[in-house]
Write a structure and sequence with these properties.
Blueprint: H1 5-13, H2 22-29, E1 32-37, E2 42-44, E3 52-58, E4 61-65, E5 70-75, E6 80-81, H3 83-88, E7 95-98, E8 102-108, H4 109-118, H5 120-140
Helix pairs in contact: 4-5
Length: 141
């Protein structure tokens, strides 16, 4: 996918990609596409198998535990989600609903797995992010 300059700058600030070289980032960009959602759309549904990883380019989305009818997070520009379902091959643990019109940069499961194999730095950044998220969840409990 050909990314505009503003999108590249936003993605390079995402912790997952922030330490990539320009060459490595160009190979990542080839695995990306863009998808639009309107307010109220489900971006992912709890219980479905995961097939994409998402980075919010524009807009806001809420993470909802459907079975508890509980909002657990609001995602904004640069936030990413969907990695756990791709890593572990499990059903989505929560739904994500667009709270405004949303533009998301997406990567399919195959591209995501290739990214992790080709870029150990991305895998390390992803591990760090997951640990930080789990720590935050534990504190909140």
């Amino acid at each position: 996918m050909q990314l505009d300059h503003q999108t590249v700058l936003m993605l390079m600030k995402v912790p997952l990609f922030s330490s990539l070289s320009v060459e490595d980032f160009q190979s990542v960009a080839e695995k990306l596409s863009e998808k639009e959602f309107v307010k109220g759309d489900y971006m992912v549904r709890q219980g479905e198998l995961g097939d994409y990883f998402y980075v919010l380019k524009k807009g806001e989305a809420d993470v909802i535990l459907e079975d508890e009818q509980k909002k657990v997070a609001t995602l904004k520009e640069g936030d990413f989600f969907g990695e756990i379902a791709l890593l572990v091959g499990v059903e989505r643990t929560a739904s994500v609903i667009a709270m405004s019109d949303v533009s998301a940069i997406i990567m399919n499961k195959r591209g995501f797995n290739e990214l992790l194999k080709e870029n150990p730095t991305v895998a390390a950044n992803l591990s760090k992010t997951l640990v930080l998220r789990l720590s935050k969840m534990a504190e909140e409990m």
